[in-house]
Amino acid sequence: AGVRSWRMGRTEWREGLASRLEHVGVSLALVVAVSLVVRFVVFPLAHWLVRKTRTDVDDQILDRLTRPVVTTIVLVGLGWTLLWLEEGTLRYIIFASLKTVGVIVWAMALAGCGELILESLMQRSRNGGWIQPKTFPLFAMVWKILMYGGSVYYVLQAWHINVATWLASAGVMGIAVGFAAKDSLANLFAGVFILADAPYEIGDFIIIDGQTRGEVTDIGLRSSRILTRDDVEVTVPNAVIANAKIINETGGPYSKMRVKVKVSVAYGCDVELVRKVLLGCVEGVPHIATDPEPRIRFRMMGG
Question: What is the pTM of this model?
Answer without folding.
Answer: 0.69
